[in-house]
Amino acid sequence: MKALLRSVLPAACAALVTAAPLAAAAQTATAPSTAAAQPAPATVVPAAPEPAQFDLGAALREGGAPLSPDEAARQAVANSPNAELARAATEQARASAAEAFVAVYPRLDLEASYTRLSDHAPRDFGSFELVSVDEDGNTVTTTGTASSSNAIDDVMLLSAKLTYPVSDLFFTVLPRYQASNKLAELQKVRETAQDQTVGLQAKQAYYEYARARALLLIAQSALAQTQAQLHDVEALVRGGALARVEQMRAQAQVAAARVAVARAQGSAAVNLTALRSLMHAKGDEAFAVTEDLTAALPPLARSKGELLTTALANRSELRALRGMTYVHDKAISAEQGGKLPKLSLQGVYDFANPNQRVAPIEEKFISSWQVSAILSWSPNDFAVSDARADRARAERLTSEGDLRALEDALVTEVSQAYEDFVAAQEAQSQALSGIAAAEETYRVRREQFRAGSVVATEVIQAETELRKARLELVSAAIDARIASARIDRAIEAKR
Predict the structure, then answer these.
(1) For residue 382, what is the domain's CATH number?
(2) CB within 8 Å of 395: residues ≥ 6 apart
(3) Are 338 and 272 contained in the same domain?
(4) What is the DSSP string of 16-63?
(5) Residues whose CB is less than 8 angstroms from the CB of residue 250 and which lie 6 or more positions away in sequence, other chains included
(6) Does residue 30 share a domain with residue 58?
(7) Bridge partners of 260?
(8) Residue 29 sits in which domain range?
(9) Is the pLDDT of residue 40 over 50?
(10) Bridge partner list, 108
(11) From residue 370, how far is each of 70, 238, 299, 361, 435 by CA, in Å?
(12) Theoretical Cys-Cys bridge with 438: which of 136, 236, 342, 469, CB 3.0 to 4.6 Å?
């Protein structure tokens, strides 16, 4: 049956375009002979208007506020809560370094105190005799009783104490400050890495949105083509050149195209929401894609090995982990210093009423001072510092493991991004040549269908191949740009 249709339909289509309809010929067969001798007027099926030439790049640049991938990344970094947390962590690390540096200076303690002593009666020491000789040489005896003087009940003290930790300065304080200062620098590096990560996420979201929007535009273009094809089929069915089943097939194709448009609209809406969420952009307005996705990216200027070498040298996360080795070493040194005896110098100045160091005690403010050299050691401090040193060594081993794991992951990341870019470039090159052939095939099949030399199925197949070629071109172009963004992130290229 299909073979019969393929042999009959082309002739019927040609007859429809160049001769009278079959129905008119049947009516003239029953008319008088004079009427039958007259030729029937030719009937031409009106063709549907051709859809406008599809320009994907121009279509993407319309329909919303213009947005480039770099601008999307900039807004995402500026508004990202993760980037803000990284910046807050940097400020905390700087404050910790400043706090550690304060221990370099001598410690000054100022004290002011008032003490009220309890009242008590003078103590009686008993009677006494005092024997003396006067000017004339006579012996004089004096008797009396001895008692303590009245105690001073109010004691006031103003004191200043200056302590300088001599040994701790070199063995504990300076190593801790150096570790804190280096940690602040590394946190700044982590902040840069976080910005780079957020920027890559924004670019990937941008390109996925561009992919979804391109698929929507392609689906809408395909819908317009299937509607034009349906118009031609309906005209041929009305003329009797095609069976109604062909019209039903064309209507099903239009319905399928509408479903594809609806699905593409949903995908575009989801990807737009994801992009606006990363950028923290209010509203739901669509963005116009300013980058020309149909243009091929330039080939990579460096080999995979060169890219990997650059990534291992430039990657912020690696530099931060390498710097953590220095931090842990200084932390270990500081904890080891805590196990040693501590030598400190101390100076004290008192201004007291009464001053206990002055005899006899008087109820008035008197100043005094003292200077000391103190050597101290505690087994408790030794045990605590030893445990802390062990913990610092374990943290150093953890950082070294993280460093090796990240280096291995970076090798895979660079290799995958490189191969994805090369494959996408090749796919885009092939898709560019394939889309030209698909467009020409579709145009020829439509003209042949109107002339009756092919059936509607062949036109539908040509339209499907054209849509597939356009989708492959868009997917290859998006994949190449995502791979390029990942390579830039891996090597932290400056643009």
Answers:
(1) 1.20.1600.10
(2) 328, 331
(3) yes
(4) HHHS--HHHHHHHHTS-HHHHTSPPPP--PPPPPPPPPP-HHHHHTSS
(5) 226, 229, 230, 233, 234, 456, 460
(6) no
(7) none
(8) 1-44
(9) no
(10) 162
(11) 68, 120, 78, 19, 95
(12) 469
Tokens 């269908």: give the residue. Answer: 449
Q: In sequence order, what are the residues at sequence separation of 6 or more whose Cβ sits closer than 8 angstroms to the Cβ of residue 413?
A: 311, 486, 490
Question: Do residues 4 and 152 both lie within one domain?
Answer: no
Does the residue 123 lie in any domain? no
| Domain match, 6 and 132 both | no
Structure-token match 């030598």, residue found: 343
**pLDDT tens digits, one per residue of 299-343:** 888 999 999 999 999 899 999 999 999 999 999 999 999 999 999
CB proximity list for 417: less than 8 A, separation 6 or greater: 483, 486, 487, 490
Q: Check: CB of residue 219 under 8 Å from CB of residue 260.
A: yes
Question: To the nearest 5 percent, what fractions of the chain are helix, strand and coil?
Answer: 65, 15, 20
Would you tell me how many other CB atoms lie within 10 Å of the CB of residue 135?
5
Q: What backbone phi and psi angles, to 5 degrees, belong to 330?
A: -70, -35
Task: Give the bridge partners for 133, in sequence order.
Answer: 139
pTM of the model: 0.72
For the segment 175-189, the average pLDDT, to the nearest whole number, is: 93
pLDDT digits (tens, 9 = 90+) for 386-430: 999 999 999 999 999 999 999 999 999 999 999 999 999 888 888
CA pair distance 475, 478, nearest whole angstrom: 5
Q: Three-state SS string across 207-246, please?
A: HHHHHHHHHHHHHHHHHHHHHHHHHHHHHHHHCCCCCHHH
Contact yes or no for 207/69 (Cβ under 8 A): yes
168 with 208, same domain? yes
With respect to residue 19, please indicate whether it lies within any of the assigned structural domains. yes
Does 49 lie in the same domain as 19?
Answer: no
Same-domain status, 378 and 438 = yes
Task: Specify the DSSP element, H or E, that contains 371.
Answer: strand 366-376
Identify the DSSP state of 172. I
Q: How many CB atoms lie within 10 A of CB 236?
A: 24
Indicate the number of domains in the chain: 2
Q: Say yes or no: 56 and 9 in one domain.
A: no
